[in-house]
Write a structure and sequence with these properties.
Layout: H1 3-14, H2 19-23, H3 35-44, H4 46-63, H5 68-87, H6 90-100, H7 104-118, H8 121-129
Helix pairs in contact: 3-6, 4-5, 4-8, 7-8
Length: 133
């Protein structure tokens, strides 16, 4: 801010009128990671995760890695597995299990869960979560 602007704003600051402009918008504070919150986010973003799986298999078909029938069968099986995991709260159980295990592989998966949880929006969360499946 320029010094001239500060002189003009000084009377406004004294009355508390500029405080809102200097502080910025009220953002919701990020919730700390917990397995319960992770499960709730999985439930809330389920449709985005399923859509991300579909896009991934469509890309495989487009580049020729899979034929259409094989891709559809694998996609449907993975989508069923994801929905079942969410419905039976397996994401929460897996999170709690990974918290307790101390091998490097398990710590890496748990760290990935925490990283994905912090991603903004369901679309970013879904793309990140696919690395765990």
């Amino acid at each position: 801010m320029r010094i001239g602007a500060l002189k003009v704003m000084a009377p406004l600051v004294a009355h508390g009128l500029v405080l809102v402009g200097l502080v910025g918008c009220n953002k919701k504070a990020p919730q700390p990671f917990s397995c319960d919150r992770y499960q709730r986010r999985m439930e809330r973003c389920e449709s985005y995760v399923v859509a991300a799986v579909k896009r991934r298999f469509d890309a495989d078909v487009k580049i020729g890695a899979l034929d259409r029938d094989e891709a559809d069968a694998k996609r449907k099986a993975l989508q069923r597995r994801i929905r079942r995991r969410i419905r039976y709260k397996n994401s929460k159980r897996l999170c709690e299990k990974l918290q307790k295990l101390r091998t490097p592989h398990h710590r890496k998966r748990f760290t990935t869960m925490k990283y994905c949880y912090r991603r903004s929006g369901c679309e970013g969360f879904a793309q990140c979560i696919l690395a765990l499946w």
